[in-house]
C-alpha cells in the first residue's frame, strides 16, 4: 500500500502575495506596521530576504521578512526529529 505524503500548502511569498497592504513584521521580529505591498517587497529586497505571508485571514494579511528556504529546512528538520 502506498503512503500519501501530505504537505501543507506553501505560503505565498514575494510577488505571489495578492494583498495591496500588509501588516509587516521585520526579520528580527519587530512589528513595522501596516505598509503597502510595494514597500514591504522593497524592505525584504533590501534585506536580501523573502516576504512571506504568515496569516492570510487577518485584515490586513500578516507578512514577515525572513529567509524562506532556511525556514522550510528548519521546519523539515524539526519534523524529522519528532518522528
From TrEMBL:
Residues covered by the Translation initiation factor 3 N-terminal domain: 13-81
tRNA-binding among keywords: no
GO cellular component, one term: membrane
Keyword Protein biosynthesis among UniProt keywords: yes
Keywords: Initiation factor, Protein biosynthesis
GO biological process per UniProt: ribosome disassembly
Name of the protein in its database record: Translation initiation factor IF-3
Species in which this protein is naturally found: Pseudomonas laurentiana
Gene: infC
